[in-house]
Amino acid sequence: MYATIDIIIAFAISLVVTICVTPFVIKFAKKFGFVDAPNYRKVHNKIMPRIGGLAIVMGATAGLASMYKLVFDLWPIILGGVFILIIGIIDDKYTLSPKYKLIGQFTAAGIVVFFGFDIDFITIPFISEKISLGPFSYILAIIWIVGITNAINLIDGLDGLASGVSIIALTVIMYLAIMNGQYLIVALTAILIGSTLGFLFFNFHPAKIFLGDTGALFLGYCIATISILGLFKSVTIFSLIIPIIILGIPIFDTLFAIVRRMLNKQKIFAPD
Length: 272
Known about the structure:
Layout: H1 4-32, E1 35-36, E2 48-49, H2 53-65, H3 69-94, H4 98-114, E3 119-124, E4 129-132, H5 136-154, H6 161-179, H7 183-203, H8 212-230, E5 233-236, H9 237-246, H10 248-263
Parallel strand pairs: 3-5
Antiparallel strand pairs: 1-2, 3-4
């Protein structure tokens, strides 16, 4: 059980820390070359720092530190998040190939699932019959984590879009968690909403800094793993559909992009 005041304090800490560190992240990105240069497929016309996710991670870490007991419950998710963060930072500096990014994402998802964060049963509504997913529970969880991680990353094309959609998704997940008394989920979403909202002050049009893969992959990963926590172990069909509805925009945007590229005989992972 986590007291409401503790959650509010964690939210405030993550918000304030992110607002305070983002200007320093902007300077760091410019100094060490974590920048996005304009070209024919970009909407910006000047060099932009693109490691904004680092500020979100710093704010979220500060908020999480204020509720340090969460760390002991969630260390596999935190470890997977470190992998995602490393992949994002390297990509923002050197632009990794999709193959290596996927390897990193599957590694992070594999860590989470290996330590038991999966969905074992699906309950059929009205008859309360449980269907065991068996080995498919691991496959479903890994596909979910990798899919949502990439979905958020692929919509990161306009100022404030990915961060704004992430805040909306996290807010809905938090509301559902409050209704179901899942205070661990409430605490985690509050911390992430605070840090992402703090970053949005600098990312809203006209943006001073971009999320970059550091931020987009991290937010997608967090949303995916938190939604699994919210459905932990045994869920109804309806409950499984709820996160899909929440994340409908990035999910369907990703699916349509894949179909469009296949029809046009383009590479699925090519920049757009």
